[in-house]
Amino acid sequence: MIFCRSEDIPVSFDLYVWGSPRPATAQQAERICHELAAGNSRSVSVDARVRGFAQEMLGRFPALESLADEEMEISPWSMTPEVSASHVIMTISWSRAPEVAEFVLGLAARQGLVCFDPQADWRMQYDCWLGTMSDNVLSVIPTDPRWQPEPSHAEQARR
Fold it and tell me: ∠ CA(93), CA(80), CA(19), 5° rounding?
């Protein structure tokens, strides 16, 4: 997450997606997330679904490098997502986070991937699985209602 130095206001929202292992707890997911952020991907496995996820996601929200200068302002990315054979790390501009997070959650659920939100205060709520969307998607979304997927989206993700 990127913060505005003058006020400690978040200006970006991060999401991590990987295939396996599926963490049993939010703490395990956070450990994997920290390892990935540090450049260590040994804790996650190469997974063909991750490439499919990345292709579809970047088809909807193109990488910054592929945009013309005038298109940069409308991109949801603070940085182009880090894509590997085992995981995807996304840094999303705060203003576009609800829209992009909803898309990413649904796509990860359809692909059977883990999606982790490291910003969430899951320490207070250990049962923050969004199990109604997918057993594989750990989405510890903040309790602010604007972060909750619409019921219709959750319904689509179950298909």
Answer: 100
Locate the DSSP E strands across the chain.
Answer: 3-4, 9-10, 12-18, 77-83, 87-93, 114-116
Q: From 91, 81, 21, select the one nearest 56 (Cα to Cα).
A: 81
* Contact assessment for residue 81 and residue 58, using Cβ atoms and an 8 Å cutoff: yes
**CA 141 to CA 122: how far, in whole Å?**
8
pLDDT band at 13 (very low <50, low <70, confident <90, very high): confident
For position 56, what pLDDT does the model report?
97
How far, rounded to the nearest angstrom, does the alpha carbon of residue 44 sit from its chain's CA centroid? Answer: 15
Higher pLDDT pick, 134 / 47: 47
Residue 49 has pLDDT above 80, yes or no: yes
Q: Evaluate whether 98 touches 23 at the Cβ level (below 8 Å).
A: no
Strand pairing partners for 87?
18
Name the β-bridge partners of 17. 88, 115
Give the pTM: 0.73
Confirm if 118 and 144 have CB atoms less than 8 A apart: no
Distances (CA, A) of 53 to 72, 86, 100, 126, 131: 22, 11, 13, 27, 20
* DSSP type of residue 119: T
